[in-house]
Amino acid sequence: MLKKVSTLILRRGIKTSHSTWSNKDLFFKVHPSVSQALAENKPVVALESTIITHGMPYPHNLSTANEVEAIVQSEGATPATVGVIQGKIHVGLSPGDLEHLAQCRNALKVSRRDLPYVISKGLSGGTTVSATMIAAHRVGIPVFVTGGIGGVHRDGHNSLDISADLTELGRTPIAVVSAGIKSILDIGRTLEFLETQGVCVATYGMTKSFPAFFSPLSGFSSAYHVCNPSEAAGLIASSLSLGLQNGVLIAVPIPEEHAAAGQHLEEAIQAAVTEASSKCVIGKDVTPFILQKVNELTQGKSLQANLQNEIHRLTLESVFYLIQFGQTNPGSVCQSFGGVGRNIADSLSRLGEAPLFISATGCDANSDAVFNYCKHMNTSGVARLEGHNTATYCVVISESGELSFGLGDMDIHQHITENYVSQFEKQVSSAALVCLDGNIPVSTINYICSLAKKHNINVWYEPTDVERASKPFLTDAWKYLSYSSPNMAELCNMNKTLGIATPDVLPTSLSEILHVAVSLSRPLLEHLHCLVVTLGSNGVLLCGEHSADSVNLQLRKQKKKRQLCAVHYPALNVSPEETVNVSGAGDSFAGALIAGIIQGKDTDNCVRMGLLAAKMSLASPHPISPMLSVDSVDPTKLKQMNWPTPSFFWIDKGVLL
């Protein structure tokens, strides 16, 4: 269930926020499997750890944690169990970390309130719902699963003992899937408190009956219910898309066959509550005390229900089909051939170059069509894999030519492995320039960058999208890139991954956009030769080495002392009536710009080639216009062209090595 939840949320482009975590964060440690999955836009499911440290005895706690993670992994998603170990918030735990928390006798129960103290003292603990939500939101995980959330304690209207889970749901935009509210709590007052916090609560099933963790029935109702995966999808999509800055709670009842006898459990709970009161157990110690006592009174039946709750929510059928249509929509349909790497290789091939295109496809009808269309390209580096699907992207384009939404089957990209690409090491090592797109695995990017370091190769990184932009910056691989062509959002994510502060909101005026783009480019130019920041309708900003009153775009032979500058080129005018499709303009620009660089043209002519190619793409239903040719983008043959005047800026007067 959660794999499909996360996958479809990612495909829709719905996020809680852009991740504010970086690999230099002093307080967070993100497991490599989690950071790689996030960078590759793969589904990640957050899991809490108080079930390990305080919810079950050893070894039941460890076996349950392992089983839950195994279920997540078996469905193709990456589990991200959150815990605090020796003063660091871990997002994603190794087997050793899980074992440590499962056996740690002095582990604390860590909520929002406790995080500063536990971190400052270097202590360990299991994260509650609130602390797990904070960590998940911080690193960009939008879906979190837990057993039962905290709530208003019995007699809470007098004691004011109210779980921080509730206020966290009111201020952190995460989709929380749970078995409801713990049956030891005052469920009615908890639901009222959630309403006050603005949290949308819905039961997953045919009724609004709100589950009581151990039992499908609590005697209370949710405000809403979602009957099927599509309805659940719509609810979560709306909640995360509206920018309301609060979570949504989906309550999933435990299956009837695993629910403990309601009356028997209720009697045990009442007895446990009475004993807790008589022994003056208060605050956050109440829940684990009552759970343990209920487990004793029911001879383990509540523990079994707890286990089943943890497992059931992860084995439900698919939940969230984020796009649902109730009718056929009229429109025109055409097939074109895309993919960032393919587009750039296509562009270069039409402009007189003969790049080797290294990729992978399935062995299916779609790959037959691709190879037939790409006969003008050198596709000898493309593997055709039996039993796999060729990457396919279904996109709906609005009347204005803008992307409305897309659905992609891109798993084949994970087979463009380091091992496969190493077959072409000789060609890569001797190339004038190697272009990488962000769809390939992190390990393959790192491998190419290691060759760049060894053989002094110029490498161009095309980020593809905001999340994939961070891939080379997860390690020192980025230091061996020569060029990159991010947009503003991608440039921000590159900086964030390096631990560099970025604006919360991107500016809208051109002068402010250029100022921010220059500021964010400066740290990357410590190692990169040139940044080509694409600004959409505002044109393009080149940042790099100063040469002849412009930015030196020519291939770098070795790193040297240099002064930095930036040049802004406005976009060419394209009317709305001329715009057919915007999806390939950036790739067309990059391909033509690279062609100009390889051909040794000056900076103005390189950029003008790119702008002309982008304009042709906008007017074509294909990402790369079939009409693209050397003559069509030759600025010297357009004598009547009124080129916009570029603007020059010094980045700083310092000299970089």
- Enumerate the spans where pLDDT stays under 50 for 5 or more consecutive residues: 312-325
Q: How would a crystallographer describe the biggest sheet? A: 11 strands, mixed
Mean pLDDT: 85
Secondary-structure class = alpha/beta
Shape: elongated
**Quick one: CATH class of the domain at 340-650?**
Alpha Beta
Which value, in Å, is the CA radius of gyration? 28 Å
Distance between the amino and carboxyl termini: 51 Å
Let me know the CATH homologous superfamily of the domain at 340-650: Ribokinase
The tally of strands reads: 23
- CATH fold annotation of the domain at 340-650: UDP-N-acetylmuramoyl-L-alanine:D-glutamate ligase
Instruction: Tell me the fraction of residues in β-strands, as a range.
Output: 15-25%
CATH hierarchy: architecture of the domain at 340-650: 3-Layer(aba) Sandwich
Number of helices: 23
Share in helix: 25-40%
Characterization of this structure:
With 657 residues, the chain is of the alpha/beta class. Among the domains are: 17-141, Indigoidine synthase fold; 340-650, Ribokinase (UDP-N-acetylmuramoyl-L-alanine:D-glutamate ligase, 3-Layer(aba) Sandwich), CATH 3.40.1190. The chain contains 23 helices and 23 strands. Strands 1, 2, 3, 4, 5, 6, 7, 8, 9, 10 and 11 form an eleven-stranded mixed sheet that branches. α19 links the parallel β16 and β17 (458-462). The longest helix is centred in the middle third of the chain and has 17 residues, at 262-278. The two termini are 51 Å apart. Residues 312-325 have low confidence and may be disordered. Residues 331-626 form the Carbohydrate kinase PfkB domain. This is Pseudouridine-metabolizing bifunctional protein C1861.05. It comes from Oryzias latipes.
